[in-house]
Amino acid sequence: MFEPGSRYHGIPTTVHTLPDGRRVSHLRRRFLPQPEELATVGVHVVAAGDRLDRIAARHYGDPEQYWRIADANRTLWPGALTAVPGRRLRLTLPAGVPGGRACDGAGRP
Asked: I need a surface site. Which of 7, 65, 108, 109 has the fewest CB within 10 A?
């Protein structure tokens, strides 16, 4: 139903029956991963004018992967992540992907 790079890929669907008997199919809730369980692969220091989609394009090769940065930095409002220049953003592998190189928070192994 969703592309492999989507945050909703692999989320199961369920069916809800309305009082009038109609059945509505929908996605189950997506729970945010625990950031500390994600493998860190780098760090991005926010510069003035940075946007999360551009950061994702630079580091992941796809601007639609911005949600990975939001998940890794424990936020529900992605715009907050780039509001303050100098903020250090963790870059991680998606939930469920083991490995990656450990890093010291400065992007160094």
From this structure: 109
